[in-house]
Amino acid sequence: MKASQFTLATLRNTPSDADIISAQLMIKAGLIRKLASGLYVWMPTGLRVLKRVEKIVREEMERIDAQELLMPVTQPAELWQESGRWEDYGAELLRFKDRHSRDFVLGPTHEEVITDIARSELKSYKQLPATYYQIQTKFRDEIRPRFGVMRAREFTMKDAYSFHIDKDSLAKTYQDFYEAYSRIFTRLGLDFRAVQADTGSIGGFASHEFHVLADSGEDDIAFSSESDYSANVELAEAVCHDTRQPPSEPRTDVDTPNMPTCEEVAEHLGMDLTRTVKTLIVKGSYSEYTPDMPKLVALVLRGDHTLNELKAEKLPQIKAPLEMASEDEMKEAGLVKGYISVDLAKYDIPVIADRSASVMADFVSGANIADKHTKGMNWERDAVYADVADIRNVVDGDPSPDGKGVLQIKRGIEVGHIFQLGDKYSHALNCTVLGKEGKPVTLMMGCYGIGVSRIISASLEQNHDDKGCLWVDTPDPVDNIAPFYVAVVPMKSKDGSAEAKADELYSTLKAKGVNVLLDDRDERAGVKFADLELIGIPHRIVVSERNLAEGKYEYAKRGCDDKELLGLDEVLAKF
Ligand code: ATP
Ligand code: MG
């Protein structure tokens, strides 16, 4: 490609509305342009990167015998009504009507459509297992689109789905995907981890997320210092080996004016935050069908711990999805917001203590009186809990749930997700085949996603410098996802010799199949170099009259300060 005929679209200034370094770089380097919130145009430079990621993903899907197909983005509502997700999916699902007033959705995912295909095309167990994938645009009306294409509303996903006669077959294909994903992220040169993930409300059997490690990640992941245990913090079990000491202090109310938080109270009383507790009031799972369940539930956590909503909402007493009680509801129940006590015996609100809170003694809780807390609180003597449960997020230094080492928390960007779904969709859509005994068997399903466009943001979060993008070296150079792998830059020469030689070198490299850009723009060398560094082109060859006199070309690798003078053969041998 010749730069004079290519829309490089680089910018001099950092875009003010980009909220993360990768988004700034992608806009500045001309990879993307924002059209509206969460909607981006892939400019020629960016699309070259996207296609290169797609190629690697596709190769690894073919390697595990997944069959590529392509489903429509627009899907009829009937299928979503059949699966139950028309009601359940929420506002991320964009629904609309066609000219005949029929309901449709823009596909955020394709379980319904693929299951519809499977139920009509798969007839016998002999056709199984069957795995399909597509690389396609998804639409999710994200509540907070941000970070450029990292959390967009329209984005490119590789989604795959597998169908099985039994759980064993599903587990085997799942393992194939686990390995394929590991190969993909390794080939891309990313620092990633596969972590255990929550199977959520679907009730599947197993799930792993693949995270690219980066401080800007939206997920917290926990690793053991001594084993290969790793899990999303959403899921990681908080274990507690401590035992409770007997009470040694009397129960006394103390003044804590205008101090609704544990931090303020701990500071005021000169105590460690770990000796305070907080009591959160959430809605219980009471309904006319479950009248024995409580209307409100109190959750008690150590002052320095945070509630894990996913863990809490799995408890039968608690309403899912988790909802905090409103101020009015608390008032009505006789509770004083910000000062709620753990001693709720007379309020008819069951107390669930987190494991770590349940082993505390002589602690501080609210007094259920405005501007007062109680010191010297002790379980059994001063308050009772109905249950002890793991309802908090793990923190750095917690024991690893597998008994080996302690946990360390890092931030991750989720780039892939694999899931043993079980029969949720096949059951709802009646997707069966004839089994060995000649009777219909409901299929087992797996689903597997990769955020193809998000990978590019994630890669840049991990690899950039103050000059711009770095396209990380990949184990095989062919897999490098840089938009151009080599730039050839002629310096203006009086006799035109540098331009001619640069052109020649460009043609030779191109004929060899090298992904090369000739920067033949009528610009100062400094402008060209800055652009090429911003775009992150890994290799640069400068052709100048002076060096040509010695038969040399100046070679520089992006990210390294050194320049080398090489003969033509040496240059060609590099690629
Ligand atoms: P997240 O927790 O980040 O919202 P998710 O659980 O909704 O992700 P999946 O439904 O598993 O994601 O989708 C598969 C993959 O698609 C994710 O692993 C992620 O890489 C990518 N992805 C999901 N939502 C977006 C988005 N809004 N923009 C870009 N990529 C996305
Ligand atoms: Mg999501």
UniProtKB/TrEMBL annotation:
PROSITE patterns linked: AA_TRNA_LIGASE_II
Family: Belongs to the class-II aminoacyl-tRNA synthetase family. ProS type 1 subfamily.
GO CC terms: cytosol
Lineage, opening ranks: Bacteria, Pseudomonadati, Pseudomonadota, Gammaproteobacteria, Moraxellales
An example Gene Ontology biological process: prolyl-tRNA aminoacylation
Role according to the record: Catalyzes the attachment of proline to tRNA(Pro) in a two-step reaction: proline is first activated by ATP to form Pro-AMP and then transferred to the acceptor end of tRNA(Pro). As ProRS can inadvertently accommodate and process non-cognate amino acids such as alanine and cysteine, to avoid such errors it has two additional distinct editing activities against alanine. One activity is designated as 'pretransfer' editing and involves the tRNA(Pro)-independent hydrolysis of activated Ala-AMP.
Chain's gene name: proS
Subunit structure: Homodimer.
Keyword ATP-binding listed: yes
Taxonomy, superkingdom: Bacteria
Reactions that this protein is recorded to catalyse: tRNA(Pro) + L-proline + ATP = L-prolyl-tRNA(Pro) + AMP + diphosphate
Cellular location(s): Cytoplasm
Family matches, as InterPro entries: aa-tRNA-synt_IIb, aa-tRNA-synth_II, aa-tRNA-synth_II/BPL/LPL, Anticodon-bd, Anticodon-bd_dom_sf, Pro-tRNA-ligase_IIa, Pro-tRNA-synth_IIa_bac-type, Pro-tRNA-Synthase_IIa_type1
Species whose genome carries this gene: Moraxella caprae
Domain observations: Consists of three domains: the N-terminal catalytic domain, the editing domain and the C-terminal anticodon-binding domain.
Enzyme Commission number(s) from the entry: 6.1.1.15
Residue stretches making up the Aminoacyl-transfer RNA synthetases class-II family profile domain: 38-490
PANTHER family according to UniProt: MITOCHONDRIAL RIBOSOME PROTEIN L39/PROLYL-TRNA LIGASE FAMILY MEMBER, PROLINE--TRNA LIGASE
UniProt protein name: Proline--tRNA ligase
